[in-house]
Amino acid sequence: MKIVALSDTHFPKKKNGLPQHLTEELKKADHIIHAGDFTKAELLDELMSYAPVSAVYGNVDEEDVKKRLDARICVHLGGMTVGIVHGHEGHGRTTKERAIHTFLPNLPQIIVFGHSHIPLMERMSETVLINPGSPTDKRREKYFSYAIIRSNDRSIKCELVLLDEYGKKVKSIYS
Predict the structure, then answer these.
(1) What's the domain count of the chain?
(2) Which end of the chain is more exposed for a tag (fewer CB within 10 A), N or C?
(3) Residue 6 class from Cβ within 10 Å (0-12 exposed, 13-18 middle, 19+ buried)?
(4) Which domain holds residue 112?
């Protein structure tokens, strides 16, 4: 199973379209995860045209998005449990800490979160933490980014994909 994970797209404020490299990956995805801050529902509808979507709302999402989504969810995909949260609410000083606390005491195999726009892929005991960053609003980061999660019966492999300002793949970081 191939899952494309993204967050913090902020449409249409930051960009009016997704980078071409990302849309090519979305066309090949079995499932899509969005960890909030769509801003408007049009992007949610676009993502649903590519593959099934599991998503949560973020702190800047408009009411039409919040009416359609929850603040956090846990889904079962490809033999794994994935927790999804934006990361702006809850206990903890950092976005990563808030994301972890959201799912305590029974952490899922993967937690996908956003909010900070800082790409992260880190193993914490039996849980992989993924912040896909943003494919459209990198803020102070060097690259735009998103993540790919691949699973089969025996393994889970995660990849952070880094894109330049033109939406071209610069490099990948694997877990």
Answers:
(1) 1
(2) N
(3) buried
(4) 2-174
